Fold this protein.
Amino acid sequence: MFSWTTIDLLLAGVAALIAMLVALHADLTRARGGKILAFIALFLLPVIALGAGLSRQMEQSKSTQFCLSCHVMEDYGKSLFVDDKGYIPAAHYQNNRVPREQACYTCHSDYTMYGGVTAKLRGLRHVYIQYLGKIPKPEEIKLYSPFNNRECLHCHNGARSFTEATPHHKTPDLLDKMMSNEKSCMSSKCHDTIHDVDTLADAKIWKAEH
Amino acid sequence: MVSPQIEKRIRWSGLLVSSGLAVQVLTMAWSHPLSFMAFLVIGCPLMLAGVVLFLASLVSK
């Protein structure tokens, strides 16, 4: 019926109105009922609304639309629509292997205890660079560290299509090496076509029906 | 008896909290890095300042 965003908006709106009422009629606090109202309006509701707002903002910041808001990321967004299953992000996005509404965040956050926090801190740095720093060209953007297989294995580990794939058994210890990140999925010339934004000009683009 | 000084603080607290909440309402309606920053840099401090001022008014003479 109501989405969480609507509920948060209503909560914040009502809390703002009650706080304004207390601000305009501070003399209400002379009575016991007014004191209780002030406590609710100036402590309880703002704290709840702040928590809900933070949670909502964090959720919104995971969205693909949010990540692609910056002009420099446009090509990365376009690479999700390349009509070539060799492009790893495109194949994942188009086949719903990652949730489309959180495509960037799903692959680019570390699946560790503080992975989400690290991703947010990096995000803050990106915002700083976008508005106050020197914006790099799309093809100059690099990962902070080599892509860890852990992020791929978070979903693929245990999947039949992964464990039984013939190329993954080229050597007897290949799977173990992949599990321990000794052999990278992406930089071992196996799945090495990632966003490749410098090749997009010649790429065929998939036109989604919806 | 509530002193005028406390009422003044409560008035300021209400204004800060309602401004912070207004910023929150505006930023939640727009999914963009700038709205995220506005919430963090403007909305949260305004709201926290209002709450702290209210709590301070409770313990002040």
Observations:
- The radius of gyration of chain B is 14 Å.
- Chain B has two helices and no strands.
- The mean pLDDT of chain B is 91.
- The first helix of chain B runs from residue 4 to 28.
